[in-house]
Amino acid sequence: MTTQAVMTAEGLRYRYGETLALDGVDLRVDPGECVALLGPNGAGKSTLVALTVGLFAPQQGSVRVVGGDPRRAATRRRLGVAQQTLGFPNTLTVDELVTGAAVRGGLRASAAAPVLAELGLAELRRRRVPKLSGGQKQRVQLAMALVTDPALLVLDEPTVGLDTSARRHFWQILARRRAQGTAVLVTTHLIEESAAVADRVVVLDRGRILADAPPEELVARLPDRTVTVSTRLDRWELEQLPGVLSVTPEHDLMRIQTRSPEDLLRALLDRDEQLSELRVQDAGLEEAVLALTDRAEAAQ
Ligand SMILES: Nc1ncnc2c1ncn2[C@@H]1O[C@H](COP(=O)(O)OP(=O)(O)OP(=O)(O)O)[C@@H](O)[C@H]1O
């Protein structure tokens, strides 16, 4: 027996006037899965999210959430959405906001209390929005999205502005919910964070999916290495060395991406006898995503 997908997109196209924002997107998210949507600015991530949560109708193709049309209220109830741009009414307390979300979702007001406790918001429940920190506001948004026990949680850059411990707490809460079957679709620019938390990474560029795979698989496809070094050679000189793909200055160091670290090290040692702080690492997901999107650009 195959499990029912929580979300499916098939042949999804969306155009704003002249701009083709989505150009034939197929995607499937299963129960309990966490899928990270990555891609450069303007790739189409927000448009895909907007169609998934039923803000717009697809112009071609289809999108389904638990088998239904996300523009229908009954389907929308199965969705939890937390978006940075969403504002709160300043006059309401944390309790009122989360209770309001429960009632709007067809639940009793009493559904709010366990979620407030789960997110560590019980102490803050009488506080009004203007007196909350940025991190606390984000937790309130998550509580509002989780209170209806959604099948799919859609998160837009959810951990921006959170410190390390708040970020860990955030992903721990989601891990518990995912174990109970909630699927997560998250857009982010924090590539290394998505490598740590996502089951699958979907790389979108100019409205097309360039890759859809577990993060470790994307990294394994890339033969590149990153060499970090302190050198007197400047960026232009480094770019001329054999096998160099890119050079990024990082504080006092140079971060060099290469396909042939041995040749590069030989050339570096020949040209700079004061070379220091040398480190060679496998490329990370960030490099894998950049390589994919750069390759797509070069093919244009
Ligand atoms: N309301 C709109 N009117 C016209 N063009 C739009 C509109 N919204 C988005 N676009 C264009 O559609 C394309 C996809 O935009 P979208 O916002 O979906 O990308 P994104 O991946 O979310 O980008 P970012 O990472 O910058 O948020 C871009 O070229 C963008 O300029």
Automatic annotation (TrEMBL):
Residues 7-231 form the ABC transporter domain. GO terms for biological process: response to antibiotic. Pfam families: ABC_tran. The keyword NAD does not apply. One of its GO terms (cellular component) is plasma membrane. It is found in: Cell membrane. Signal peptide: none annotated. This is ABC transporter ATP-binding protein. It comes from Streptomyces kaniharaensis.
